[in-house]
Amino acid sequence: MVQRLEISQAEARVLQAKYWPNPTLTVDEVNLWRTYDIESQPALIGNWGKSSQVSVQVEQVIKTAGKRRKSIELQKIEVDGEKYEWQEVLRELKKLLRHTMTELAYNQELQRLYGSQISSITKLTASYKNQLTSGNISKAEYIRLKAQEVEFRKKQVSLQQEAEEQQTELKALLMMPADRYVVITDPLKQPPGNFSELDLQQWITESAENRPDILLARNQEKHALKNLELQNALKTPDLTFSVGYDRGGNIMKDFIGVGVSLDLPVFDRNKGNIQDARIEVDKTGYETRKNVVKSQNEISSVYQNYLRTKKISDELDDEYESTLDSLLISHEKNFRLRNISMLEYMDFLETFIDNKTIILETKKELNEYFENLQYAVGKDL
Questions:
Q1: Separation of CA 224 from chain center
Q2: pLDDT reported for residue 227
Q3: How far apart are the C-alpha atoms of 259 and 240, rounded to whole Å?
Q4: CB 192, CB 371: distance < 8 Å
Q5: Nearest to residue 357, comparing CAs of 315, 324, 333?
Q6: Which of 87, 147, 324, 360 minimizes the number of CB atoms within 10 Å of its CB?
Q7: Could you give the CA distance from residue 313 to residue 311 in angstroms, rounded to a whole number?
Q8: How far apart are the first and last CA of the chain?
Q9: Distance of CA 246 to the CA centre of its chain
């Protein structure tokens, strides 16, 4: 919203640039007392003015060499620059918002994963405590199971703490009050779209025309060129036209005359500012080319990272994940029936948690690379 208001400020500067300079009124040579040996004059106002002298002059500056028009055009370019700045801010905020939502969704799914395991292992721990009391198992087995429960609870607390930080950032982005809590209801899933090298080439071409940072760099180059025009125009002196009235200060009692004045460009021909403006044109040109090349490399790099992650994601299909869930249920049942040892159960539980985490991390990374790709291209894909 602040960046949006800066556009309005730039538009106000365009409005200001359109105004002509104010005329200057000068009242001079007024004698406040009567002097001797003066010529008789008729009264000017009532009985006043028979022995008074006064000079009145109005001056108006006329800008030459198109300075006013060039100043207006320069301010209009600045308005465009503020609009591109606004688009760039929105692009950055959109990326930050989506990344934060992806991180929160990943965190919430991990919490559900650990919450489910805590619920299951808590029941096992309670059962083993009764078995320990009855003398059916060793204390070491119970401690091993309890330690795993504590480890899961510690991990869940750590995830909750991370979620609080994500909540803080997300609520700040959405301008939500502190008493609200955001829950991402959609599960993490693979983003839509299958892309090819043809898409990559099209994105590289379009990014040079669409990305706000490149448009901003080109606008700065345009601004530098227009400023160079203005600095060249400033070496031409402005004209000052005047109309004056003089009473009692000349051989004519009531004298009206016109005049014109201008600075003589003998010493200052604005050479330093013109040279500075030329260098700025070169600088902005280099910056534009740098941003274009940078965008091309960013798009290519992010696209390759997206493809690599997508390949892994495609291998981790829904059938693999459902197989893991079925095997966990089977191992837990066999462990309750004491068909498998605690070591076997714990080994598989660790494998299950690791693989589930890998699946979630892959989905999260794929969504993040997809958003990075949209950010690099400069549009939603």
A1: 23
A2: 94
A3: 8
A4: no
A5: 324
A6: 147
A7: 5
A8: 25
A9: 61
Q: Give residues with Cβ within 8 angstroms of 52, minimum separation 6.
A: 30, 31, 41, 44, 247, 248
163-181 per-residue burial string, b: 16 or more CB within 10 A, e: under 16: beebbeebbeeeeeeeeee
The amino acid sitting at 223 is H
Alpha-carbon distance values, 66 to 9, 152, 230, 232, 236 (Å): 24, 75, 8, 10, 10
Q: Per residue in 49-75, pLDDT tens? A: 777 788 999 999 999 999 999 999 999
Pairing mode, strands 239-247 and 54-62 = antiparallel
Give me the residues paired with residue 261 across strands: 240
Nearest to 247, CA basis, from 58, 53, 57, 50: 53
Residue 168 has pLDDT above 90, yes or no: yes
pLDDT in tens, 178-230: 889 999 988 888 887 778 888 888 899 888 888 999 999 999 999 999 999 99
3-state secondary structure of 20: coil
Contact 59, 241 (CB under 8 A): yes
Assign domain 63-235+270-377 to its CATH architecture: Up-down Bundle (1.20)
Can you give the pLDDT at residue 243?
95
CA 315-318-323 angle, 5° bins: 100
Nearest to 59 by CA among 247, 244, 238: 244
Pairing of strands 254-262, 54-62: unpaired
Least confident piece of the model among 1-5, 10-14, 20-24, 102-106: 1-5
The CA distance from 370 to 381, in Å, is 9
Cβ 81 vs Cβ 6: under 8 Å: no
How big, in percent rounded to 5, are the helix, strand and coil portions of the chain?
65, 10, 25
CA gap 56, 26 in Å, rounded: 6
Q: What is the pLDDT of residues 95-128, one digit of tens each?
A: 999 999 999 999 999 999 999 999 888 888 888 8
> Hey, which residues does 242 pair with through a beta bridge?
59, 259
For the chain, the structural domain boundaries read 63-235+270-377
Is it the case that residue 290 has pLDDT exceeding 80? yes
